Amino acid sequence: MTAFSAAFYGIYVIVQKESENSAAQNNMKSYYFSEGQIKPEAALNNTDIMMEPVKIPFFGDSRLMIRKGTTVMLGILLLCGAVFFFLLYFLLLTRRLGDYLVEISAGIRNLATGEFGTRIPLRQSNELTQIADNFNTMAEELECIVQEERRAENEKIELITSIAHDLRTPLTSVIGYLELVSREDLDAATREHYVSVAFRKAKRLQRLTDDLFNYVKFGSGQIPLELSRIDIVKMTDQLLEEFYPNIQETGLELSVKKGVEHAEVQADGMLLARAFANLFGNAIKYGRDGKVLRVILEQEDKNIKIRIINFGEVIPNKDIANIFERFYRVDAARTEEQGGTGLGLAIAKNIIELHRGTICVKSDFDGTEFTVELPVAE
Question: pTM of the prediction?
């Protein structure tokens, strides 16, 4: 359309120029130079010096104005150009918007089919960009929810599997030894030995069941706490006195260092004592080879810090991150001998977190240190 308009206008200009040239030839008039002036023939007098006449075209006032036809053609050309560029811009814009809408639709379909990692790139800055941004936010939230549900489902399956395994082992032993006891050809000493072994296995089964119940109860975070002001320093002394026979039995030397004489915390005394009992019992079991059990109490700002250090085998770095996971054992071979269930540290962590505290562990050649921090009561 633009090319047609330009060609039409070009033809019009050429024709008009030829017409103007013809008109100029027809309107030629003769002028004479006389005394430095240009005069027409009619204005000469007898005193003027006549010279050879010069022909000059005469256009009149119409030469100084744009012809009406030219104005119309310019207007038509400008209008056609404006319409053309408007249509071109509209087509390009709608194509970009259409492609972006197709991309957004594809993202929605992918999300509907379960591809929660789908994201739409933010290519423009308009309402569609806001839609794409909101879509990405929704997809991220859905992905987090789905991942959390999958993690919870995997944890449930893992928990059921671990419970079945840990319950089946002692239960199978109890049934096996009871079957042996039922035999009539056993002497009294052998029968008594089998009964003793079955009893120990049953006690282990009971401890495992109790620990499992407590872990689920504490881990849910819905257990009501009977809070009161407790002197954590005094409670630590009492627990160490209760564990003193075990400490002597394993040949450990107990070292207690107190940087503070009294520090009260808001806590459920029974639960907090259970957590520290698990930590002390773990340090005694796995630190017997180190010969020393060290307990350090100190206050930092508004927190009381209890450090329990044993010098047994170093915990590998790959196990540190999982040490508080349920049923996780650094040395599974020693569990049966020492009666561990793999839930003690997990229960201790849950109880301490219920009291708005923290627990961490580090292990190197300077010892394995469990550090508990609890907020001091105002």
Answer: 0.53
C-alpha 367/C-alpha 361 separation (Å) is: 10
Which of the following CATH numbers is that of domain 228-375: 3.30.565.10, 1.10.1740.10, 3.40.50.720, 1.10.10.10? 3.30.565.10
CA distance 153 to 106: 30
Could you give the 3-state DSSP secondary structure of residue 323? Answer: coil
Query: For residues 115 and 84, is the Cβ–Cβ distance under 8 A?
Result: no
210's enclosing H/E stretch is helix 188-219
**pLDDT number for residue 344:** 79
Structure tokens, 6? 């330009």
Top-level CATH class of 149-219? mainly alpha
Question: Measured at the alpha carbon of residue 343, what is the angle toward residues 245 and 294, in degrees to the nearest 5?
Answer: 40
Q: Average pLDDT, stretch 273-291?
A: 88
Instruction: Note the pLDDT of residue 61.
Output: 44
Lowest pLDDT segment from 10-14, 90-94, 160-164, 207-211? 10-14
Token pair recorded at residue 102: 């197709």
Question: Kind of pairing, strands 54-57 and 37-40?
Answer: unpaired
pLDDT per residue over 25-67, tens digit each? 555 555 545 555 555 555 555 555 455 554 445 444 444 344 5
Of 181, 209, 208, whose CA–CA distance to 197 is shortest? Answer: 181
Name the nearest CA neighbour of 300 among 261, 262, 260, 255: 260
Query: How is the chain split into domains, by residue range?
Result: 2-65, 149-219, 228-375
pLDDT confidence band for 136 (50 / 70 / 90): confident
Alpha-carbon gap, residue 295 to 283, rounded angstroms: 10
